[in-house]
From TrEMBL:
<dbReference type="InterPro" id="IPR033121">
    <property type="entry name" value="PEPTIDASE_A1"/>
</dbReference>
<dbReference type="InterPro" id="IPR021109">
    <property type="entry name" value="Peptidase_aspartic_dom_sf"/>
</dbReference>
<protein>
    <recommendedName>
        <fullName>Peptidase A1 domain-containing protein</fullName>
    </recommendedName>
</protein>
<keyword id="KW-0645">Protease</keyword>
<comment type="similarity">
    <text>Belongs to the peptidase A1 family.</text>
</comment>
<dbReference type="Pfam" id="PF14541">
    <property type="entry name" value="TAXi_C"/>
</dbReference>
<dbReference type="InterPro" id="IPR032861">
    <property type="entry name" value="TAXi_N"/>
</dbReference>
<dbReference type="InterPro" id="IPR034161">
    <property type="entry name" value="Pepsin-like_plant"/>
</dbReference>
<feature type="domain" description="Peptidase A1">
    <location>
        <begin position="98"/>
        <end position="446"/>
    </location>
</feature>
<dbReference type="Pfam" id="PF14543">
    <property type="entry name" value="TAXi_N"/>
</dbReference>
<keyword id="KW-0378">Hydrolase</keyword>
<keyword id="KW-0064">Aspartyl protease</keyword>
<feature type="signal peptide">
    <location>
        <begin position="1"/>
        <end position="15"/>
    </location>
</feature>
<dbReference type="InterPro" id="IPR001969">
    <property type="entry name" value="Aspartic_peptidase_AS"/>
</dbReference>
<keyword id="KW-0325">Glycoprotein</keyword>
<keyword id="KW-0732">Signal</keyword>
<dbReference type="InterPro" id="IPR051708">
    <property type="entry name" value="Plant_Aspart_Prot_A1"/>
</dbReference>
Length: 453
């Protein structure tokens, strides 16, 4: 689902945290020591997720995740062609692929929210509710938190644009509208956020800017209460804590079959010094800054199938899109999209080369979702090595991430065609420790068994 900030609201939110929140949390982070923060990143289909359905077979989970990918990609594409007087960003009405547990306030109230690298604003439902969707966990009550404060209308953060969004006295208000008529409206506020670090010691950070939603509705489900924004925009958690975590976060994603069948393993996300990716087998590629700043853009130069390299270029070019066709920053790396999307004309060249290289018997996908599928009794096929050539970084993709069993006896390519958008999805990212450094403007990849990370 794409959502819409008015330009004045977006700037209001950005300025409010820049001036206030970073100063407050520096002491807390520095007192933690030098290990940073590591949290569980819970896949929505894993036994640790409230969405887990033990009766679902793995192929059903994959098929459902793939359908969510197509919806998400369409919203990303709309995002990429936003008009100058509006800023659009992506948020799916169906739950994202990964969830995070945090707590807000003093005393802390636990929140289970969608962890989204394609969104900036962190928000949760709050009492009193003018209108709230049902959620299974307690709704946050700001009146019971001794550390909760709202942003005032006369504050520089609220008046700097000359058009403050104030409707109830001296309180700034945010509004996010969604393409499917879903929405969240509430107060722009600060409160203490507590992160349940895997070290066993909770990490508390005061004065984090977030949206306290009093009017929320649409297609949201009762299993989550909001969004944790991990995007590249100014209001995201990553940029709010920029000085404290030095612009660094990383994650290690477990392959979906393991995540879905084993409650003892989970993906992880790291912040600060814990997020540094190092070692002799690390490769890094530039992180390209462009609009919309929410997304993380890389430059893909080509893809190799065995010994043949296909140059990444496309005639499906839009001057407002991700830059396919030669411009820097031609692909989005996104943890919330399962599939990898490539421009249709490039994709069909890649599919043709794969078809020539794979000797297994072809089989049509009954749903018509996937273009290249093969019969397989054991869920695998003998496929050539696929390497994604990013600028200064060659990433050899794991066979299990490029071909997956979507139903019994059917294995399909998890790369699919799209127009005006290219996304490096989370299946292609599994079993890599992937580090984002927003100070050095680079993304690093290290082959890693994420089940043991």
């Amino acid at each position: 689902m794409n959502f819409l900030f008015t330009l004045s609201t977006l700037h209001l939110v950005e300025s409010s945290f820049v001036h206030v929140s970073l100063v407050s949390c520096r002491k807390t982070i520095s007192n933690r020591g030098e290990n940073g923060i590591t949290l569980d990143l819970i896949h929505r289909d894993s036994p640790r997720s409230p969405f887990y359905n033990p009766s679902n077979i793995q192929s059903n989970n994959l098929r459902n995740a793939y359908h969510r990918s197509f919806s998400r990609a369409s919203f990303f594409k709309k995002n990429s062609i936003s008009t100058p007087d509006t800023i659009e960003s992506d948020l799916s009405p169906i739950p994202g692929e990964y969830l995070m547990k945090i707590s807000i306030g003093t005393p802390p109230v636990e929140v289970l929210a969608i962890a989204d690298t394609g969104s900036d604003l962190t928000w949760t439902q709050c009492k009193p509710c003018k209108s709230c969707f049902q959620q299974s966990m307690p709704i946050f009550d700001s009146t019971k938190s001794s550390t909760y404060t709202t942003v005032g209308c006369n504050a520089e953060e609220c008046t700097s644009l000359g058009g403050p969004s104030c409707v109830r006295g001296n309180i700034c208000e945010y509004e996010v509208s969604y393409g499917d008529q879903s929405h969240t409206i509430g107060d722009l506020a600060f409160d203490k956020f507590t992160f349940p670090s895997t070290s066993g010691k909770d990490v508390s950070i005061p004065h984090v800017a977030f949206g306290c939603g009093h009017d929320n509705g649409g297609t949201f489900t009762n299993h989550t209460s909001g969004i944790i924004g991990l995007g590249g925009g100014e209001v995201s958690i990553i940029n709010q804590l920029d000085k404290e975590i030095n612009g660094k976060f990383s994650y290690c994603l477990i392959p979906i079959p393991l995540e879905s069948s084993n409650s003892n393993v989970t993906s992880r996300i790291n912040f600060g010094t814990s997020a540094i990716v190092s070692g002799p087998d690390v490769v890094s590629t530039p992180l390209i800054k462009k609009e919309p700043s929410t997304f993380y853009y890389l430059n893909l130069e080509g893809v190799s199938i065995g010994n043949k390299t296909l140059e990444f270029k496309s005639s499906k070019t839009s001057s407002s899109s991700t830059g396919i066709g030669g411009e820097e920053g031609n692909i989005i790396i996104d943890s919330g999209t399962t599939l990898t999307f490539l421009p249709s004309d490039f994709y069909f060249n890649l599919e043709s080369e794969l078809s020539r290289s794979i000797k297994a018997p072809k089989k049509d996908d009954p749903s018509g979702t996937f273009g290249l599928c093969y019969e397989s009794e054991n869920g695998t096929i003998d496929a050539p090595t696929i390497v994604a050539h990013f600028t200064n970084a060659d990433i050899e993709l794991w066979p299990s991430s490029t071909f997956a069993q979507v139903e019994q006896g059917l294995v399909c390519l998890t790369i699919v065609p799209a127009d005006q958008i290219a996304i490096f999805g989370n299946l292609a990212q599994t079993n890599f420790l992937i580090g984002y450094d927003l100070v050095a403007n680079k993304v690093s990849f290290k082959p890693t068994d994420c089940t043991k990370y």
